[in-house]
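Hey, resending since the last one bounced:
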Amino acid sequence: MQMTGLAEGHEQAVVDLFNRAYGRPLSAALWRWRFLQNPVPGRPAKLMWDGDRLVGHYAVSPAYLRVGEQSGLGSLSMTTMTDPDYAGRGVFVTLASELYQELRDRHEHLAVWGFPNLNSHYGFVNRLGWSDLLHLPMFVADADLLAERCGAIGAATVTPIAGGFSAKHTGAAESLLTNRITTVERRPEVLDWRFFAHPVFRYDAFEWERDGIHYYMVARLVDSLREEGETELNIVECRIPPDRRLLGQLLLGVLGEYINRMPKRLNMILSVHDPLSVEAERLGFIPLDPVFRFGVLPLRESEAEIADPRRWRLSMSDSDIF
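The structure tokens again:
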């Protein structure tokens, strides 16, 4: 078998492999968006071939990572697939090990991180040296209860972000950082690509200005998996200070934008080390299932602080499934 990188012309082979591996189709538009249109440079991927047959695929998606005051490249671990006829031959571990070593040799990447599922979790931790950092619950709030608790606070007047993100929005994200925080950087071109160029999901972005800082939230209305016929609002991005009153005002303001299809619940993903999680609980958000595993592989010996779970600030938008 032969190992190669990702190149033009491989798209159909990747789509066909996904169908064989998972028994469902892969959107070619979604694959192109994630791996070919990402504004962060690089296409780190390894493919395993048996002749002309693609039998294995592992790729990561480049992102800008902020570790305290340092900024550099990192990658979100992405699509893992192995042809069922080649299961048990170590294809995934071979591809991932080779890709990680290539990233180390380039001296560009600080780390690879991701949200392993049950099938891949063992391989990442026990075969590839990942550190298990966090179990992230889904913070869930009943919309009516939230409105009742925040009624005395009142709703903020939010404005839809229609013309794309700009430095004023990323400035808000920057204002929340300290030298002890690790997070995926928010840059205007990346935010536009993530939320306004997605070929499948529709997102709504809102801003609110205070003292010259433009805080923002990004939401996605989804069909409820808990209650048939109902909708829920995923708060996929929330870049505000850990302030209960402000969080309540903005959530009420955003809810008001969905008056014609009011969601039953609101969902967020937050680390328990994020001060915003405490403020969310005070507003009625409850940590529930599903719980998502988050892990990381530092690629430089000097970057041990990347493996400190207390430093990470995460949201739904850091995962590809939301």
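The longest strand covers residues 53-67.

Sorry for the duplicate.
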